[in-house]
Design brief:
Number of domains: 4
Radius of gyration: 31 Å
Distance between the termini: 69 Å
Strand order of the largest sheet: 2-3-1-4
Helix content: 55-70%
Number of helices: 16
Order of helices and strands: EHEEHHEEEHHHHHHHEEHHHHHH
Oligomer: single chain
Strand content: 5-15%
Amino acid sequence: MNNYAGPLYEASFVIDDEVLADTEDWLQDLVSRAATTAGIDDTRKFESGSDNQGRNLRSCQFQARDDSALNTLLDGFFADIDAEVAARFGDKVIVHSRVLRADHTHELATNEGLACLNCGTRLRGQYCGNCGQRSRNRLISIWQLLKEAFGDLLELDSRLWKTIIPLLIRPGQLTRDYLEGRRARYMPPFRTYLVLSVIFFVVVFFDPQKDLSFFFEPEPPPTAEEIAQKEEAQRLKAEKKQAEVDAAVERLKQLEAAGKIDGKVRAELEDDRGGLNITFGGDDEDDAFFGDCSKASISGDEDFPEWFQKRFTDERVKEICERNNARGIDNFRDAIVDKIPIALIVLLPLMALVLKILYPLSRRYFVEHLLFFVHFHAFFFLILTLQVLFNSLLHRLSLAGNVGTLVIVAASLYIPVYLYKAMRRVYGQGHLITIFKYLILLVTYLTGASFTLLGALLATLFSV
């Protein structure tokens, strides 16, 4: 098996003495099944002695026909190995896996007279084996400068595309490869996360006409007719709201007359919403964001700590109202958008902690669980960016409608499916236990995302 043509998948097993005999039988059966599995050309099982704790070491090597066959096997036969070990032996057997490829380094000519200008290491080929710097030093043209700047974006074989494609279509593969040591071919996880998050916020929230308004002709002021129409719409809206309030009060009076509630209950329902109430303003005044701030107040805070009551007085609430009115609804919305990335970064370690609790026997460090969610959030930004760009293209081609709705539905369904498949591939447990843990993770994720985004909203509201 030294001169194989295709990639080699190696699974190493650390086995406790009490399950050694059963594991040997299972490994023999595994080799027999591999012999009849499509895409595997050869299989070899051998003993590797013992580790420093006296545990038994066994290894199996599977020669895949080619890279395409390897990708199929990683989703099927090889993925099931981890699940079978976890289901049959629990933590009595630990599995480590990696992909081995032919080393053609000896085919490179040695440049005896050249040394790396960055670290001084003797060069073999066009890149330094110590620091990675290219041997060429001179920048020949402006095109060379542009190519250096946008190389990862323009070159189809760059690490950017090698990262984005599996991130999008192979759930959990990047995380698994990184944990198993296959890292050089991909962009670093946190860089991937930052790049895709920046692209997402630029695509979704960047408005050229607003953010680059200097280059656009200003819109003409509203005409007297438009102003009158807007005032009439506001008046009708206020009348409708008042009619709804009057109807609710009348219904309460009818219930009171019928003896279903007493007058005290009706008064409480009309005048007191209970609990902590913060009112930022009354009716709209000159299109102010929060309305008339002279009516801003706080009530129901008697049961809260003294430090809370000192910081949230009526005067403080009025000040918050006036500051946000001066800020305007557009700037308020922009401020929330600015805090969303921080909220999502706060969410990452919280969800990694949940994974740590869900997989106590995985023997993975906290940062390895964190890596899982870094890649998942990177995928989340990527799929949303593609969805926004696709819908924008449909609008420009006047094809929006059912097609756009189908895209939104498909993307919405793919995201939870992606999370489940990523958990299955990275942690290697069976379908039933993974579904159970997936449901717990999904509930905690939605709860955590809601609270962190609510925190971003409150931080924006009270940042005065």
